[in-house]
Amino acid sequence: MRQSRRLLVLRAVVEDYIRSQEPVGSNAIAHRHDLGVSSATVRNDMAALEDEGYLTQPHTSAGRVPTEKGYRYFVDQLATVVPLSEAQRRGIGEFLSGSANLQDTLQRAARLLAQITGQVAVIASPSLSKSALRHVELVTVAMNVLLAVVVTDTGRVAQHTLSVAVMPSTESIARFTEALNAACSGLSFAQAAQRMQALENDQRFVGLAPLTVQLEHAFVSMADDENASELYMSGASHLAHQRSAADLAPLFDALEEQVVLMKLMSALSEESLRGDGVNVAIGSETHTPGLLNAAVVTSGYGHAGHAATTAVTAPDTADDVSRPSLKEDGAAGAKEPTVAAVHDAAGDPVAFVGSIGPTHMDYATTIAAVHAVARYLTSFLAHEEPGE
Predict the structure, then answer these.
(1) What is the pLDDT of residue 320?
(2) Which range (104-108, 117-121, 158-162, 243-247) has the least confidence?
(3) Do 196 and 184 meet the contact criterion of CB atoms below 8 Å apart?
(4) Which of 34, 210, 313, 367 has the fewest CB atoms below 10 angstroms from its CB?
């Protein structure tokens, strides 16, 4: 986009349409925004923006509305995220601090994000493949069956049944469990599986080789399980008040396809950035037919293999996130979703938090809310205060 005034006109149209959801006319722009030009000049700029594909006119006598390309340029030109109010920031901490465990925290976080944005909130629990082993407990549950209770650094708990021909003594199980935790605590499940091979050859546990092999296989399975995440969703009822009946069916169908949503939002949260980056995909950028009239704002949270040990580096406020502008030629063509210019070297996120709403969503508020909740969850997994 060549002229800065034209950019201001586009921004004004997008902002007014987000607020009113009605086509925006040149007179309204000229009177409501201090652009220093006449409505005739604004009308010419809007016509040029329409020719360039940033705006469209639903009816000949109506005003104009942003296109997907117009929203994309608007989002990419956001210099900073509009901060959440002090009450909203305080509310996030107070509401989530009462959680009893990880599952409760994620359920509460989804409800809270939906309340702030008025849209659908989707939060995934940390996948086992991106978690590290914190502790294993072996419990006798039957004459020839042990239950391995595996606790990860992200708070996930997995259980595996282990069959034995002869039940080892309580003392043998205790010694083996102690050695197992000493060798594997803090490791990824792939690394823990390798350590189990060493325990197989440990002369102290020769009689427990079958048990060791089963645990090794369990850890390999957990390391390979990319889809072992639960999805917490809230706010679907909000959509009924924002979308036309024609748009609802495909959108609700998309929300039902949880595997598709998991893949989409995981890819968006991991693309280019780690941890604190916020990514926005609009309409066709989601590559999901049911989301052609929707936008997705998502961020990763937590750090793979570092959730219990890595300090969280974050801005002083939960909302101070810088976002890059696009090159002029990048805004004009088809492109993949872009992300915020915040890079976290701690590693891949363990899961994502996101919001799904109409293309005319309040992008600034949604981005700020997603980032704030993601930051809180990252701190929660690291057992730190969010402000640290």
Answers:
(1) 37
(2) 243-247
(3) yes
(4) 34
Q: Which tokens belong to 299?
A: 């961020």
| Torsion angle in degrees (nearest 10) through CA of 298, 299, 300, 301 | -120
Side chain identity at residue 32, one-letter code: R
CA distance linking residue 261 with residue 53, whole number of Å: 29
Residue written as tokens 């989601």? 286
Instruction: Say yes or no to pLDDT of 362 above 50.
Output: yes
Q: CA–CA distance from 181 to each of 26, 138, 169, 199, 205 (Å)?
A: 68, 11, 18, 11, 14
* 118/357 Cα distance (integer angstroms): 8
Phi, psi of 65 (to 5 degrees): -130, 155
Position 87, amino acid: A
pTM here is: 0.75
- Burial tier of 95 (Cβ tally within 10 Å: 0-12, 13-18, 19+): middle
Q: Is residue 297 a contact partner of residue 81, using CB atoms and an 8 Å limit? A: no
CB atoms near residue 154 (< 10 Å):
27
Residue 133, Ramachandran bin (φ over 0: left; ψ between -120 and 50: alpha; else beta): beta
pLDDT > 70 in the chain, percent = 80
pLDDT of residue 325: 31
Count of CB atoms within 10 A of residue 84's CB? 20
Query: Exposed, middle or buried, 86 (CB in 10 Å: 0-12/13-18/19+)?
Result: exposed
Can you give the pLDDT at residue 66? Answer: 96
Give residues with Cβ within 8 angstroms of 17, minimum separation 6.
23, 24, 65, 66, 360
